[in-house]
Amino acid sequence: MSNLERDPQETACGGRSESAEGPARELLIGRDVVLGGPRGMKVTRTLPNRDRRMVGAWCFVDHYGPEPASMRVPPHPHTGLQTVSWLLEGEVLHRDSIGSEQLIKPGGLNLMTAGRAISHSEESPQEAVLHGVQLWVALPDAFRHVEPSFDHHAVLPALTLPGVTVTVIAGELDGLVSPARTYTPLVGAEMAFDDQARIRVPVRPDFEYGVITLSGGIDADGVELDRGPLLYFGPGRSELVFHARRPSRVLFLGGEPFEEELVMWWNFVGRGHEEIERFREEWSRGSEFGTVQGYDGDPLPAPALPATPLKPRGRRR
């Protein structure tokens, strides 16, 4: 999914020195963003956040629905990241400039690696209830110029315990390994809870983690967590305990703190102002990013760059 804001703000993030020391806990409140104009679809964006911009390499989290909606995101560019699309309800059709066309349904994973440059569109075949999350993963410098690619995984590894099902979307969790291609040590998983179900999740002390309630309500390591905020856990833990106060679905993210500083502006992840400026110019000229076939409409124009130069900064404000 694109960042459709017409006045996107600079987001500079990364740098291990700025990650939380020890087993910190922070409740990060998201902000509402309307995609595609005043009548567009509303999402809650918890990353990047005013106080913390990344969890591992996860640098963007939009949660939308459940509500009747018609998604229509015109062709738009990406660089230096992976997009991770995960649905709980509805269907979304993905098309991209390397020729991929894939309908994603609940329980399946669409993973697009932008690498040096790609463009894509997303639209729901009809107006229906949509509920899902769109996530971005920042690519480290060694891999951020790889050739673009797209992968669809209709079936993912899952662990079923009394009252809880854990589906590993990306990375590895407690011995379960997703087939999704990743470039940094990380994990992404969905946990589905029955009422009052409880689980202890083994975690890596060198990882930081984030938890978002997609529906219902849980206690996460003793913190009541309802739909909306992202609860951040700093490194230094060996397990996390989750207890559902009612039937719930939860998104669980984690990863090794991202060592590099980077700049995220509009739909680009780069390392400085000049690079972002070049990406924007290439998209405006229609070069490098290819053409999305099959979408009935014009590509999304790039917004104007801010008046002040974009600068890489640390992962925390």
From TrEMBL:
InterPro entries: Pirin, Pirin_C_dom, Pirin_N_dom, RmlC-like_jellyroll, RmlC_Cupin_sf. Residues 190-286 form the Pirin C-terminal domain. This is Pirin family protein. SUPFAM superfamilies: RmlC-like cupins. Residues 41-137 form the Pirin N-terminal domain. Residues 1-25, 290-317 are annotated as: Disordered. Pfam families: Pirin (PF02678), Pirin_C (PF05726). It comes from the Bacteria. The lineage of its organism: Bacteria, Bacillati, Actinomycetota, Actinomycetes, Streptosporangiales. It comes from Sphaerisporangium flaviroseum. Coiled coil: none annotated.
